[in-house]
Amino acid sequence: MNELPLEFKKYFWDCDYSSLDFKIHKEYVIKRLLSFGDFDAIKFILKNISQQEIKVLINSKGSNLLSKNNYIFWKKISDHEELWG
What we know:
The protein is mostly helical. 54% of the residues lie in helices and 0% in strands.
């Protein structure tokens, strides 16, 4: 999957959305969706990004990439096996 849904364009106000490639800019996209995403963005993350990938990102860079509240939220979410599928 290289393309992001058009409805996520609002989260990438500072870049050329049409040039974003999910595979190439994965960490950037994940950071934005974790930080600013709505329920649809959360569903996208749970469906398209593995629990392990999120855990690694949160544990290695999460406290620097995300606000304190987002970091705590995603730290807890990444531990719930039943959400990932």
